[in-house]
Structure formats: C-alpha cells, structure tokens
C-alpha cells in the first residue's frame, strides 16, 4: 500500500507531468513573445500607412473607422491602438466618436509644414517651434561671421554639402534633403569664431533633429520642384559667402527665412 509512494514512482510521474506542462507553456508563449517583440515595428508600419492616407487627403477628410483601418493594416487591436497613439502624438489624425466617426486627417499646424513636406514630430512640438524661432533669429549673426572668417577650405566644405543636398533633391528624398540641409547650416555655424554662438546653434539643431520622426509628402504640391528651388537658394547663399558679397548674403538669408516662415515656419529650411 505504501509501495507506490515509497519507491518514488509517483513523485517521478508528477515531475514528468510538470515538465511536460512547463514545456507546453513555453511553446505556447513563443508566438506571443514574438508578437510582442515585433509589435512596435508593426505599429510604426501601420502608423506610416495611415499617415500616407492622411497626407493624400484634405484636412478633415474621413479616413475610415478604427475597425476598417485596423483591418486594412492587418494588425491586432493592441498594435493598432499603439499606431493610433503615434499618429495622434504626431498631429497626423484626429479621432471622432459616434455615428459617422472614426479617424480623420488632421489640420496640420503651420510649424509642422515645410512647403510640400511635413516633418512628423513627437509630442514636444513646442520645444521645436521655440528652437526654430531662435535659430532663425541667430542666422544673420552666423552669416556675418562666415562673411568675415570663411576660408577656402570652409567654402569647399560647404560646396560638398551642397552636392549632398543636390543628390537628395535629384532622388526626391525629402528626409535626406532635410538632413543635408541641416548639415549645411551646421557647417556654416562652425565657421563662427564665437564658441557661445556655435554651441547655441548646435544645441538648437539637436533639439530640432531629435524630435523629428520622419518627413512625409503632402499631396498636391511638387516635392521635386520645391526642394530643387531650396537647393538653388542655398547655392546662391554659398556663392555670396565665397564672393564676400554681404548685401547679397543678407538678402538671401532674409528671403530664406521669410519663405520658410511664410510656407511652413519649420526647420527644414
């Protein structure tokens, strides 16, 4: 009567059962763990897909219900909710409840517009707006310093950066163009002999870059024409610096900031 317990058979059998159960649980968890690991990427992909719809629609246009868009993106409810959070934080969509509700293309604020492209920003858009305003205010100081202190090597570096901008413009790649553009302005700032001014500009540019998530096209506007126009303006600016033509350089700086503020009030100038 005590033999089954005394010979250790029952504990061994219980251990086997527990081991099998644990293995089954581990196997069951693999898909869930894999899904969790890919969920952020799937949420980003879903957000990008819906953002493209919003970018091609008029402000206020209905994009669809949550269920319709989730089905289109082929993601789970949790992943879709994360995508929706990203879209709302970037100001891309608005959500309206009730009959006739759903997701709607948001009215983009001026500070997230760049002519025919939108920089998708994270939640700290106010920080970016302030950084852009201060950056625009100190641009003339940096141009004055470049007029006085730019060496032939500096001008050569600026022209190489213009080549990078040109390549991005020819490829109609707004993201690469924006970053090459920032690189050109950072290189102009590096010419200044004033360490405080250089440090301030670098800090402002870091704020702008660190809160920019992506560059999205806006329908109805010619992206290639716009970025080629911006490239030409910067070529003229570097030419003015090379010629030490202060009047022309200041005029172009004013036109540069005025056109950016009029079209977008955004840092991709």
Automatic annotation (TrEMBL):
Segments forming domain GntR C-terminal: 130-259
Biased composition (Basic and acidic residues): 30-43
Keyword hit for Lipid metabolism: no
Residue ranges of the region described as Disordered: 1-43
Keyword list, A-Z: DNA-binding, Transcription, Transcription regulation
Domain of life: Bacteria
Protein name as annotated: FadR/GntR family transcriptional regulator
Organism: Streptomyces celluloflavus
Top-level taxonomy: Bacteria, Bacillati, Actinomycetota, Actinomycetes, Kitasatosporales
């Amino acid at each position: 009567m005590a033999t089954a317990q005394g010979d250790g058979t029952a504990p061994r059998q219980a251990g086997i059962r527990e081991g099998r159960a644990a293995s089954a649980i581990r196997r069951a968890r693999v898909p869930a763990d894999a899904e969790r690991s890919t969920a952020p990427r799937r949420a980003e992909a879903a957000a990008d897909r819906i953002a493209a719809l919003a970018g091609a629609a008029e402000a206020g246009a209905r994009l669809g219900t949550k269920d319709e868009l989730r089905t289109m993106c082929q993601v789970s409810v949790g992943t879709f909710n994360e995508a929706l959070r990203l879209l709302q934080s970037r100001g891309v969509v608005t959500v309206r409840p009730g009959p006739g509700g759903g997701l709607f293309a948001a009215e983009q604020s001026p500070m997230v517009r760049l002519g025919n492209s939108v920089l998708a920003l994270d939640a700290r858009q106010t920080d970016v707006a302030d950084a852009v305003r201060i950056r625009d205010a100190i641009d003339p100081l940096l141009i004055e310093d470049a007029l006085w202190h730019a060496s032939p090597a500096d001008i050569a570096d600026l022209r190489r950066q213009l080549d990078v901008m040109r390549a991005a413009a020819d490829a109609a790649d707004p993201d690469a163009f924006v970053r090459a553009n920032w690189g050109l302005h950072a290189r102009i700032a590096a010419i200044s002999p004033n360490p405080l001014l250089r440090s301030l500009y670098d800090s402002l540019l870091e704020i702008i870059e660190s809160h920019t998530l992506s560059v999205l096209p806006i329908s109805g506007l010619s992206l290639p024409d716009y970025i080629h126009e911006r490239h030409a303006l910067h070529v003229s600016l570097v030419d003015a610096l090379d010629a030490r033509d202060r009047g022309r350089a200041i005029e172009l700086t004013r036109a540069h900031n005025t056109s950016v503020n009029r079209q977008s009030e955004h840092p991709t100038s």
